Task: structure prediction
Amino acid sequence: MSVVLCGYHNMGCTALKVLLELGVPVPAVLTHRDDPDENRWFDSLAELARENNIPVYFPDNINDSRWIKLLTEIAPDILLSCYFRQMIKQQVLDVPRLAAVNLHGSLLPKYRGRCPVNWQLVHGEKKSGVTLHHMVLQADAGDIVGQKAVDVPETDTAVDLFSRLESAAADVLREYIPKLLDGTAPRIVQDHSQATYFGGRRPEDGRIDWSWDAKRIYNLVRAVAWPYPGAFFEKDGKRIMVWEAEARDDAPYESPGTVISVGDEGALVRAGKGSVLLKTVSYEEGSPEDAVNTKQVFSAGDVLGNDAVRP
Result:
């Protein structure tokens, strides 16, 4: 019995650690080379595989004949995908003897597609989870093998939620990989009428629109907080990044985007409904480590830009 792992990021490392813990042979790991332009805050699956003497490959396109030939020669029982960034086509899906499965960071059929962790926070979800499912040509639409739900506190950022999902993923893989190998795993058809799908997010999708409710702005801030690209707006021709904020229900009558007050806690800004306390901000290309004192950036009565591109 063997499992070939196609993965990346911390979730790919979690999968490999579970396979090693279970004593399942892993004859190959297929992953991605690190992008020098990406803020890589996560662990390296390639390094973890090499530490365990597992051959590592970096396919530009896993669907090319070269990789199909390699996988066919390896003849794995299972092909497991965990945060692998390429769409896998049918010729590859047909290679494993038992199953080609993927681990997805939501409770399918909700939040199919890219960046599920970020999108769930953008929409203020209070429940998330992971799903192990069979792969088909349509993204994240295959039959479900197993799921595990996690609660999402209102204070969670994307990194916080990702950590919760890593733990849930380990539990799901521990339970269901052995069942896939011995033929006892369930197979549950998704309710496609309940499916939602979201695409990849761009840095521009972090733009704040001050006409939104305070809670919506807060959810955007935490969904893309560091080490993700960050939420932002413009002031005096400069981009201001928001890394930490707080939503408040009450606010005096002002136009959205008006700075109500500036104090030791931060700058309080009127939203479409309620107000948002900007607690940690930096200038463009900065990070929380480059935070500037809000008293140096804002004054009561300032009106912040509102030329938004809605995510």
